[in-house]
Amino acid sequence: MECSLEIDSVNKSFGDNIILSDIYLKCKTGDIVGVFGRNGSGKSTLLKIIYGTLDAEYKFIRLDNTVLAQPYKIKNSISYLPQKNFIPNNLSVKKVINLFINPNNFNEFYKDLIIKKIIKSKISDLSGGELKYFQVKLILFNDAKFCLLDEPYSGVSPIISELINTQIINQSENKGIIITDHNYQHLLKIVNKIYLIKDGVGKFLKDKEELVKFGYLNEKMLK
What we know:
Number of strands: 10
Strand content: 25-35%
Structural class: alpha/beta
Largest sheet: 6 strands, mixed
Order of helices and strands: EEEHEEEHHHHEHEHEEH
CATH class: Alpha Beta
Shape: globular
Number of domains: 1
CATH architecture: 3-Layer(aba) Sandwich
CATH superfamily: P-loop containing nucleotide triphosphate hydrolases
CATH topology: Rossmann fold
Radius of gyration: 17 Å
């Protein structure tokens, strides 16, 4: 069954600085929405507001027919990957999997060469790429209907980025995914909707060429 996450009328300021103004964004299961924007444009701020861990002057968030004030408190609604590591370093990889993943999904989760490689390790022993990949996969395999991924390609190699994209594509069959990342090349490979935040205002673009039209990329960057 198709589900819908609708974000409307988001307004957020820090002091006199308006970060987001009347933001509207909609994501359905099966969608991979790429949120683009310059540094400081409010991309990460928007994801935190959607998840419910950051207040806004105004926001309206609805999952199907239910209005959510703090989505992170609602079971199986929205999962969120922050930029910083959210897993305690003293835990083992296997322990984290047991805590985060539904046992019904264990077999599928373990069918992965990277997971098999790190399964006996502690979080503190993982490389930066291994840790990021593991975190992304944990969020994607959560039972939530929607996933928010903030900078999933940050600090990882092109090979790991491609593996992350494979995981995102596979999980998007049953959930909606909203991603923000400065690595536009990898993000543009998988998105079916492009959303740009500029000067506090957000809008869906009809194609990647409009990223040039609105000044986010230049023509050479799309070749």
